[in-house]
Amino acid sequence: MPAKTTRGRPRGTSKRELELIAMRLFTEQGFEDTTVEQIAAAAGISGRTFFRYFPTKAEVLWYQFDDEVSALRTAFGEVPDDVPMMTAVRRVVVNANRYRAEDVPELRTRMQLVATIPALAATAGTHYDAWERAVSDFAARRLGEPENALIPLAVGRTTLAAARAAFDAWLARADADLTVYLELALSGLERGFAPPP
Predict the structure, then answer these.
(1) Is the distance from CB of 49 to CB of 135 less than 8 angstroms?
(2) What gap in Å lies between CA 183 and CA 167, rounded to an integer?
(3) What is the DSSP letter of 31?
(4) How many C-beta neighbours within 10 Å does residue 18 have?
(5) Distances (CA, A) of 97 to 50, 104, 179
(6) Which of 18, 61, 112, 132 has the fewest C-beta atoms under 10 angstroms from its C-beta?
(7) Are residues 106 and 23 in contact, defined by beta-carbon separation less than 8 angstroms?
(8) Tens of pLDDT, residues 145-186
(9) Residue 121 and residue 142 in contact, taking contact as beta carbons nearer than 8 Å
(10) How many whole angstroms separate alpha carbon 160 and alpha carbon 177?
């Protein structure tokens, strides 16, 4: 007599597990050649279940970035009033990008994938907008201006541009910690890019 099979709840996974699997598959076989079904199968779930976690395979690599945006907002809310605005922006952004040495190879892989795969780069806009908005909202509060006012928006956009320049330089050179690059770029922004004293 065949053994009775029971149907229980399907095996679960996590966003983190799906991210690690997706990064491995994207690196090994390319983004375009990796399907949602392959990522899901490697995690032991169905393709349909995958979509409960992420709307597309491209979004898998962005969820930690989105967590960083939440961390930025929290950190900006804790800045003492006597810290100058751009000093606060520099400190908060640098501190949000401190990684343990063992996490750096994974960070570099994720950033390299996003930088070199057009389909992933194309999904960056909404995530970068949210990051930028976290900075500009802080600037608006500090300046006593509406969130959509010109100067707060300029602070958010220039900070994002300086941070992205630091990320790109770090990816290309890999000769120092990411925070060194961010500190240099954001200190330059804080000084208006005048030479250091």
Answers:
(1) no
(2) 11
(3) S
(4) 23
(5) 28, 11, 6
(6) 112
(7) yes
(8) 999 999 999 999 999 999 999 999 999 987 889 999 999 999
(9) no
(10) 19
